């Protein structure tokens, strides 16, 4: 605020604030009293209009003020937009019913995830819980006009807000609960809202023919010209204002940081995250794997990075998991549900000023559905095929081996698969050491080098061994059907690592085989894994490090190596040829 503006503007006083509070409470109670007994519906989310035509779409930038001093409240505003989008996106309003902004959203509270953002009050932009929702109401009103909805109630800002290009006739403000935004239509319609990395996008969907034939002219009300807001509490420089000290103390200048939401730890991911993290970043992990001797969770944050664990939730999950079967739909459903709980717990603890996220893939679809990723850039640590592609591969294998009881025993819900696909498409980068998965994502991928384990050199007698090591259980997705056909009626022995089985007949009839252990690898002629699905081929890496030949399907995602022979999934003849070249 410059000197001339300051002279024209009277600094608010504490008494003004108290008076404003009293006035608003009177107006709130008056609204409640006047509308007692009136039926005002909360409209549920639905799917019946999801595929209908878009009859209106508007958008506005999120990050309009991101200087070091102004960023905190802008980040708070974006957080409030995330919460409101999660509540409003997907609602469907029947023909003739009234949509009420506050009835639908409810009061803004910290428990719901709202935080301090900017609110226009008495010409100033001040910190306020739930501040910034006027960006939602303004776009909602603009979309309603474009869609031909009848505007039942709307109110304008007294001043022009920074970053807003809505003219007065399209602008709309809200304040719980007496300053509301309401509209209706003679046709059923659906509201969709989303936060991209840069924009808030609001769209209205309806059966196109009905909407086009029943448009209702919206009233145009407002002043032709509005003055700009006088200043932001964090930058106006009017230190005499009673709000100024509290604003600057509560919102230290910052340009944001990155948050890492991590689950399973791979050495490749640990190294990449360690190189990219900076002082001030925040890491969230299931538990301290080093302390609890859980290598799968052994994340080690660099100096200057805070780290928070979800210890008791993770230990409880581990205890419950021990009671589950080793394979099958029950186990998979439990894992998905526990990942959802973990993701939502971490999401509640992310600082609104975290503008970039690094996310483990297992948490990704749940974070997307929770609205946490909107308005942020994010990278994904990918440790498996996307669910859509994974299920396609399992379906292909199941069609080849319909007798299998495991290849088709579990599929994730369509909604979860869709959420993961949308989130992966919106991500900035895909980070993975798996070569086939990286190829699936093309130029978006960052391909990491697999970490070879330390291993003793292969013993000289292994080249004379008649045994081959199979580093998995005898399951269809690991290629046991192809293995059985290639090894049947030969004098070669197959050492099988796991104990889980398909459970139908004797798949390995005619194959010399026994249960093996990891220590047996060095006494084998080589390792073979013609899997349909293999995400973490650690034992294949171990065999290569020992100097043993490895035959693996491309689905294993290994990098080129002199001792590696790759075959296509399900290619029995290719497997036989590769084995024959070594035998």
Count of helix runs: 17
How many beta strands in the DSSP annotation?
23
Taking Cα atoms only, what radius of gyration do you get, to the nearest Å? 30 Å
Biggest sheet details: 7 strands, parallel
Instruction: Record the strand order, biggest sheet.
Output: 13-12-11-14-15-16-17
Distance between the termini: 83 Å
Bin the helical content: 25-40%
Strand proportion: 15-25%
What is the residue-averaged pLDDT? 86
The 3D shape can be described as: elongated
Structure description:
- It is a single chain.
- The protein has 583 residues and is an alpha/beta fold.
- The protein has 3 domains: 197 residues, no CATH class; 191 residues, Rossmann fold, CATH 3.40.50; 123 residues, 3-Layer(aba) Sandwich (Rossmann fold), CATH 3.40.50.
- Helices cover 32% and strands 18% of the residues.
- It has 17 helices and 23 strands.
- A 7-stranded parallel beta sheet has the order 13-12-11-14-15-16-17, with helices on both faces.
- Strand 18, helix 15 and strand 19 form a beta-alpha-beta unit.
- Helix 9 runs antiparallel to helix 10 and helix 15 packs across helix 17.
- It starts with a helix and ends with a helix.
């Amino acid at each position: 605020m410059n000197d001339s503006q300051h002279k024209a503007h009277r600094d608010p006083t504490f008494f003004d604030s108290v008076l404003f509070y009293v006035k608003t409470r009177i107006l709130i109670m008056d609204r409640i009293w006047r509308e007692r007994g009136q039926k005002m519906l909360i409209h549920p989310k639905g799917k019946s209009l999801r595929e209908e035509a878009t009859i209106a779409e508007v958008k506005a930038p999120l990050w309009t003020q991101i200087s070091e001093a102004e960023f905190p409240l802008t980040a708070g505003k974006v957080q409030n937009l995330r919460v409101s989008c999660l509540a409003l996106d997907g609602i469907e309003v029947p023909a003739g019913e009234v949509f009420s902004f506050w009835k639908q959203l409810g009061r803004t509270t910290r428990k719901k995830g709202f935080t301090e953002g900017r609110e226009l009050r008495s010409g100033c932009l001040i910190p306020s819980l739930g501040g910034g929702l006027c960006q939602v109401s303004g776009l909602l009103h603009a979309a309603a006009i474009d869609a031909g909805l009848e505007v039942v109630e709307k109110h304008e800002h007294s001043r022009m807000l920074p970053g807003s290009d809505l003219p007065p006739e399209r602008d709309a403000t809200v304040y719980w609960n007496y300053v509301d935004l309401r509209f209706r239509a003679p046709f059923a319609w659906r509201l969709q809202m989303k936060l991209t990395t840069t924009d808030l996008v609001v769209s209205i969907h309806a059966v196109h023919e009905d909407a086009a034939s029943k448009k209702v002219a919206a009233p145009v009300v407002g002043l032709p010209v509005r003055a700009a807001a006088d200043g932001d509490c964090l930058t106006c420089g009017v230190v005499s204002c009673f709000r100024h000290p509290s604003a600057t103390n509560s919102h230290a200048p910052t340009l944001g940081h990155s948050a890492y939401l991590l689950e399973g730890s791979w050495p490749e991911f640990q190294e990449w995250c360690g190189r990219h993290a900076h002082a001030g970043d925040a890491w969230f992990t299931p538990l301290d794997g080093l302390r609890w001797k859980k290598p799968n969770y052994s994340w080690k944050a660099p100096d200057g990075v805070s780290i928070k664990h979800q210890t008791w939730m993770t230990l409880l999950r581990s205890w419950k998991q021990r009671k589950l079967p080793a394979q099958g739909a029950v186990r998979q459903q439990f894992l998905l549900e526990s990942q959802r709980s973990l993701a939502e717990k971490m999401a509640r603890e992310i600082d609104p000023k975290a503008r970039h996220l690094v996310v483990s893939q297992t948490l990704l679809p749940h974070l997307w559905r929770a609205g946490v990723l909107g308005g942020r850039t994010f990278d994904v640590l990918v440790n498996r095929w996307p669910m859509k592609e994974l299920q396609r591969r399992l379906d292909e294998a199941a069609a080849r081996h319909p007798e299998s009881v495991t290849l088709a025993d579990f599929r994730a819900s369509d909604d979860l698969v869709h959420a993961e696909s949308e989130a992966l498409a919106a991500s900035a980068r895909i980070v993975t050491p798996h070569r086939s998965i990286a190829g699936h994502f093309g130029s978006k991928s960052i391909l990491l080098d697999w970490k070879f384990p330390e291993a003793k050199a292969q013993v000289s007698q292994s080249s004379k061994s008649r045994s081959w090591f199979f580093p998995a259980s005898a399951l269809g997705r690991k290629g046991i059907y192809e293995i059985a056909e290639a090894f049947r009626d030969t004098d070669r022995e197959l050492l099988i690592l796991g104990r889980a089985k398909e459970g139908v007949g004797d798949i390995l009839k005619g194959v010399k085989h026994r249960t093996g252990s990891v220590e047996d690898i060095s006494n084998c002629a080589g390792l073979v894994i013609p899997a349909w699905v293999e995400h973490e081929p650690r034992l294949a890496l171990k065999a290569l490090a020992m100097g043993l030949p490895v035959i693996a399907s491309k689905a294993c995602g290994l990098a080129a190596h002199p001792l590696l022979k790759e075959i296509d999934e399900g290619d029995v003849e290719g497997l036989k040829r590769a084995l024959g070249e070594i035998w």
